[in-house]
Amino acid sequence: MTGKQTRDFIQQNAIHVEMIRKEQRHHRLHTEFSINPHRKLHVLADKPMSRNSEEVIEENSDFIKAFHNARQEPTKKYTSPVTESQELGWLSASLIPSNRDDRRFNFYRCSTDITKYKESALRSSN
């Protein structure tokens, strides 16, 4: 065969053994399990007619802290905005105290003679 050499069974087995050794060298067994605090957790109740006694489950304080931290608003979690879209409404408190009597910021609905006439004409046409 030109350009290609055929491999016999011993060479293929040696290549396979070498690949397995490489995989085992880099393989790490993860024994710690935690629930993702960013996903919604659905708790299912036991069957009403089950005779098994309730299991006592110990609380994991690290998980509870991570869960509550994930449920907070971004302004309480971070000191500054993380994304560009958060920059727009990061400081949502009003810069000027609200005063309902200040006519510069409060535009109430006003009626003039022309608007009163047009309103009465629209009511009479219906």
Which key features would you list for this structure?
0% strand, mainly alpha, 126 residues
Tally of contiguous helical segments: 5
Largest sheet: none
The overall average pLDDT, rounded, is 82
**Span from first to last CA?**
96 Å
Class per helix and strand makeup: mainly alpha
SSE string: HHHHH
Q: What is the molecular shape?
A: elongated
β-sheet strand percentage: under 5%
Describe this structure in words.
The protein has 126 residues and is mainly α. The protein has a domain of 29 residues. It has 5 helices and no strands. The longest helix has 18 residues. The radius of gyration is 35 Å and the shape is elongated. The mean pLDDT is 82.
Care to give the gist of this entry?
This protein has 126 residues and is an all-alpha fold. Helices cover 39% and strands 0% of the residues. It has a domain at 62-90.
SSE topology:
Layout: H1 9-26, H2 61-70, H3 74-77, H4 84-87, H5 113-125
